[in-house]
Specification:
Helix content is 31%, strand content 16%. By secondary structure, it is an alpha/beta fold.
């Protein structure tokens, strides 16, 4: 697992959320190209974990992603929250070539979900228990076809977060 690849130490940014999302979007594009070079129809997925009671932050993330051409309307963005009205573009999302590039979630994805194309986690949520954190990281540690590709960038998963406690926990566990 690579933690904050390309993130500058002590970076001074106006918006940390946008900064991390930009890094994840760039990494996803790189991974997509690597799969295409191998003639694989795999669309890497960024999963974005939101804190509870985060409606304003979700709206901020949605606006930012929309500014990058990732929206619900073009099926590039999916959402999986507790209420039925907050389940958007989930049909077939676990398929390797599914349309969504990003999935916004809080907790649902952490328990019992298997989407092997989930390659990148942007963790905006803090203060989770150890088991929940391990389950969440487990969502991005699977290989899309159950095998390695002899390509460093494809054979690892990526975590982007400013949660120092979580980063240390991941380093010790994985």
């Amino acid at each position: 697992i690579y933690i904050n690849e390309g993130v500058e130490q002590g970076v001074d940014t106006d918006n940390q959320v946008e900064y991390l999302l930009d890094k994840a979007i760039s990494k996803r594009a790189e991974l997509k190209l690597e799969f295409e070079k191998r003639k694989k129809k795999i669309n890497p997925l960024i999963i974005i974990q939101m804190p509870n009671k985060s409606d304003a932050l979700i709206e901020e993330v949605e606006r930012f992603l929309n500014s990058r051409g990732i929206s619900y309307e073009n099926h590039q963005l999916a959402k999986w929250l507790a209420s039925d009205k907050d389940k958007i573009n989930l049909k077939g999302i676990t398929e390797l070539d599914a349309e969504p590039q990003c999935l916004i979630f809080k907790e649902a994805v952490a328990t019992g979900w298997d989407c092997t194309r989930a390659h990148i986690l942007v963790k905006l949520r803090e203060g989770m228990g150890d088991t929940f954190e391990t389950q969440t990281i487990g969502r991005i540690r699977r290989m899309p076809e159950g095998k390695h590709y002899d390509c460093q960038s494809l054979d690892v998963c990526y975590l982007y977060t400013f949660d120092d406690k979580f980063k240390e926990g991941v380093k010790q566990t994985f």
